[in-house]
Design goal:
The chain is α+β, with helices and mostly antiparallel strands. The chain has helices spanning 7-11, 41-45, 53-59, 63-68, 103-132, and strands at 3-5, 14-15, 18-23, 26-29, 73-77. The protein is built from five helices and five strands. A five-stranded mixed beta sheet has the order 1-5-4-3-2. The longest helix is centred in the C-terminal third of the chain and has 30 residues, at 103-132.
Length: 133
Amino acid sequence: MSKVYTLEEVAKHNTKDDCWLIIGGKVYNVTKFLEDHPGGDDVLLSSTAKDATDDFEDVGHSSTARAMMHEYYLGDIDSSTIPARTKYVPPKQPHYNQDKTSEFIIKILQFLVPLAILGLAVAVRIYTKSESA
């Protein structure tokens, strides 16, 4: 049976000399792999002290990379120590009215301006028809 670690225990291992990652509910000691990682050691170090599963999956690692993980496996993570993910909800913002005109006036103008244009077009049509007759 593998050892079970807490997030607090894993989070202590976050340096170039001692680097542990949590990927897919498992804990890996990747210290020896830091120099060989194609993306550089900073990529791995930035994923310490948290669940790095999304970071790992977003890159799209090869089957060879996934097979290499077995040699760095230490144990499992106690999932109750990892904080629940919260979905980002942007703050509600009031409608921005750049020219500060009230909504009511804008709605009235949206109705009256086309009506005025139509009335003007009818008046011009009647005026030009009566002159030519």
